[in-house]
Amino acid sequence: MTPAAAAPLFVASVTLMLLASAWFARRLDHIGLRLGLPEALLGLLTALAADAPEISSAIAALVQHNHAVAVGVVVGSNAFNLAAMLGLSAVVAARVRARHELLELEAFVGLWLLGVMLAVVAGSLDETIGAVLATAVALPYVVLLTAGPRLARKLPLGAAEARFVRRSFGEPHRRETSLDSGRELTRLLVVLLVALCLIVAGSVGAVRAATDLAHAWSVPDVLVGSIVLAILTSLPNAWTGVRFGLQRRGSALMSETLNSNSINILAGLALPAALGSFATFSGLAIFDIAWLIVMTTAALVLFGKRDGAGRSAGVFLIVLYAVFVAVQFARA
Predict the structure, then answer these.
(1) Could you tell me which residues come within 8 angstroms of residue 143 by beta carbon, excluding any fewer than 6 positions away?
(2) Which of 107, 190, 219, 254 could staple 214 via S-S, CB 3.0–4.6 A?
């Protein structure tokens, strides 16, 4: 594809992808609130919605046998999520607070997935075993989020343990307005399906156009994935994160950020690695995941304080992301 054709296709594809993703995320959040779902589960669902462009772009790059772009999209978008969703939100909203129990649970899941994938990337762990270890933690986590506080009422827990479970998974929201009928729910689900199809179509077009432009202009694939596509596909996440921050929904913000990154790792790295879809990882990919662990740990320490994180913590995360970007350009 010539640059004259690829450039407008890239702009149109990214625009379609972002608009459909914002629509998808809003409708899914709306359904969750009307069903009275817990805040932590809402964060997971919103993360899944906002992650659709990133996952679709990574998979589209894999299908086109462009492994550098695929890895770059996943790792780059995760680093950008921490800087934009948490860092920028703290700067804009002045302070972000979240429940301590929520952070403890999601910190374990997020760091476990990153640690497993770092071992796989470094060649210390078999790809299939790595995928099994990642799923062994991620699957029970999703089940626990879905069960929510009902789990505390069924298990023989003491008062302190039951309180921890309730605060970890969140009490259900009071329903804003209930769904009127099964027909309305069906209509909303069809809307979500249409939006998801548009996201996938936009992602395929964006990856194809971006790689063609990169080859025509001699831009390294790693920059296309880790910087250009990673930032563009993460914009829905950034917008949703800042919105949560301004609404003082710190628990939902932290949940969406950490879950978004975990979903990216599972769908964009762990699953393809288990299927043998990745070629040998480069030294830059090892650094990227290791630096992502550093950024995640810093975010958990800063935002895990009892009084939350302020503007200085947000600026620090943004600086860490700037270092990540500088390394990509230096090593490209």
Answers:
(1) none
(2) 219
